[in-house]
Design goal:
Structural class: alpha/beta
Oligomer: single chain
CATH topology of the largest domain: Rossmann fold
Order of helices and strands: HEEHHHHHEHEHEHEEHH
Helix content: 40-55%
Number of domains: 2
CATH class of the largest domain: Alpha Beta
CATH architecture of the largest domain: 3-Layer(aba) Sandwich
Radius of gyration: 19 Å
Number of strands: 7
Length: 280
């Protein structure tokens, strides 16, 4: 694994324990390797992202177990077989795809009815309990806002549910919310991320996206955004995205900038042409 700079740094084991890993080169398209060590002999200039684009379910709030419980209860009503693996396979997917799969499994409802039922189920439980924030996410969002770095919420949940999380944060930090019912193509298509960047008036390649699922990571990468993969419910390969983390706990704005600056710098001379072609 190539490192940025020279000189001593933490061992691979140390970096693994810290939850931060570099992705190898040679995957998808050339990218600058991201050095996870706190100090290098020849540090690169820091590049602040034009915006930070956030996934919601599993990244900001820990709703994935609630979604999975909704699937168990709904399939149970119709005597349909539903396994834990079935639930995991839907993590990060658009709700319409989830509805189609549940219908195929034996839920005798229209896809839109399934989507509405699951959304109501999850929202009802969130309304009766404190939002289950993922470690470090809320703090990082609020610090980004305090430092004037734009943020957007990019989720495949319906807008009504996305606004529950957005409105629960201090000072309403998200300048843009793009939800599953705002786009034609769900993740892993990059439309949602490209739409958020366009509404913010920035190039997606100048943004950082934060995701927790393989489907979401694929969407963010396809948009051209520098992608942080934060593993949660479903294991992710350490080659996912530009930066791989096991948690956002302890990641402040300065750390985020340090982790993503090499990849942002590498994209600075390019454009979003490739991502726009994918979106077409």
């Amino acid at each position: 694994m190539e490192r940025v700079g020279a000189g001593g740094g933490p061992s691979t084991a140390d970096r693994t324990r810290s939850g931060i890993h570099n992705r190898p080169q040679g995957l998808r398209r050339p990218r600058a390797p991201v050095d996870s060590s706190p100090v290098t002999a020849h540090p690169l200039a820091l590049v602040q992202p034009a915006a930070v684009l956030w996934d919601m379910d599993g990244t900001i709030i820990d709703t994935e177990p609630i979604w999975q419980q909704s699937q168990v209860e709904l399939t149970g009503r119709y005597g349909a077989e539903w396994t834990h693996e079935d639930g995991l396979s839907l993590v990060g997917s658009g709700l319409e795809r989830s509805g189609e799969i549940l219908r195929d499994k034996g839920v005798d409802m229209e896809v839109e009815e399934i989507v509405q039922w699951m959304t109501s189920y999850v929202m009802e439980r969130l309304a009766h309990d404190d939002l289950p924030w993922r470690p470090g996410a809320r703090e990082l969002i609020e610090e980004l806002h305090a430092r004037g770095i734009p943020t957007a919420l990019v989720t495949m949940s319906r807008r009504t549910m996305a606004l529950v999380a957005a409105d629960a944060l201090a000072d309403h930090p998200f300048r843009v919310v793009v939800a599953g019912d705002d786009v034609e193509h769900p993740k892993p298509h990059p439309e949602a991320y490209l739409t958020a960047a366009a509404q913010l008036g920035v190039d997606a390649t100048a943004c950082v996206a934060i995701e927790d699922s393989a489907t979401g990571v694929a969407a963010a990468v396809a948009s051209g955004a520098v992608t942080i993969a934060v593993e949660h419910i479903v294991p992710l390969p350490e080659t996912a995205g530009d930066v791989y983390l096991t948690s956002l706990a302890g990641v402040d704005v300065d750390r985020l900038v340090a982790l993503t600056s090499p990849a942002l710098a590498a994209r600075a001379g390019g454009s979003a042409t490739d991502a726009e072609e994918v979106a077409r």
